[in-house]
Design goal:
The complex is a heterodimer of chains A (190) and B (86). By secondary structure, chain A is mainly α. In chain A, 64% of the residues lie in helices and 0% in strands. The chains are: A mainly alpha (190), B mainly alpha (86).
């Protein structure tokens, strides 16, 4: 089970009113390599993991991804919270506004809604761990694209933090892969 | 949010993050004694700071003790806080 803690993992400071940037940041709120997908992917894959280390890391990284999802939603909200219609019209956020107004919604930067087809869960733990390592790299690359697009210093600072976490998770999944491979090799020795 | 509350909240966020990061490390290095000692140090600091913060500014978990009326729902919620520059 989970218990909510009334704090963000890292402060989200936003310096501008910027609906265009908000529309781009939504990529990590509901996109294919975004935080929601990451959380659901890891928390779904836990059941088939054969070692205690793998069960632990998927639980804890999956939980951290939910905290990142909250941070990304906070960035989006702060970028549009006080935006007047005149600053929304004509921006890429306008099509989001037509349905959701200023509320965040889990779709990607081009408006494709989040779907479980973004993720995979196999009974094979090796296949899952390789998918997760790839997912972390794709998320890192997405954050690098968003950092290039960001003209808000506060948002850039938060994006850099989130990018760094992808690197750490990739490292931990690599270690987990090695542990599970060793477990599988050991199993075959009679 | 008062400057003092912000200062305490940021300290709590910092130490919670240290605790979380060392937790991920321990998940894949359960026999690293030095890391485990660091984890336990962070865990104690985190508990202590959360206790101090909650007594001063209200609970951050719904499972904590509350004064009357129910304090947990008090604003600001995390997405409503104006964080100063890091």
């Amino acid at each position: 089970m989970w218990i909510y803690e009334k704090k963000l993992q890292y402060p989200v400071q936003v310096d501008t009113c910027n609906p265009t940037l908000a529309a781009m940041i939504l990529e990590q709120f509901g996109g294919g390599d975004g935080e929601l997908g990451a959380a659901i992917r890891y928390l779904t894959q836990r059941y088939v993991m054969p070692t205690k280390e793998a069960k632990g890391i998927l639980t804890d990284i999956g939980t951290e991804e939910l905290a990142h999802w909250e941070m990304v939603g906070t960035i989006v909200w702060k970028l549009v919270e006080k935006a007047p219609l005149s600053k929304i019209k004509g921006t890429p956020f306008e099509s989001h506004f037509a349905s959701h107004g200023r509320s965040p919604f889990p779709h990607d930067a081009s408006g494709v809604p989040w779907t479980a087809t973004f993720i995979q869960s196999k009974e094979d733990p090796i296949a899952n761990l390789y998918e997760n390592m790839a997912a972390e790299q794709k998320a890192r690359a997405t954050y690098e694209a968003l950092i290039k697009l960001s003209d808000d210093p506060g948002v850039t600072d938060t994006l850099k933090f989130l990018r760094e976490r992808e690197v750490v998770h990739f490292q931990r999944f690599g270690e987990t892969l090695r542990i599970v491979e060793e477990y599988n090799d050991h199993k075959k020795v009679y | 949010m008062s400057p003092n509350q912000m200062k305490m909240l940021k300290e709590l966020m910092e130490i919670s993050f240290c605790l979380l990061d060392i937790t991920l490390f321990l998940d894949t290095h359960p026999n690293d004694e030095k890391a485990l000692r660091l984890h336990n140090t962070f865990a104690l600091q985190c508990q202590e700071l959360e206790k101090q913060y909650s007594m001063e500014y209200g609970p951050i978990k719904s499972t904590s003790l509350s004064k009357y009326p129910w304090e947990y729902i008090n604003e600001p919620w995390p997405w409503e806080i104006d964080y100063p520059k890091c």
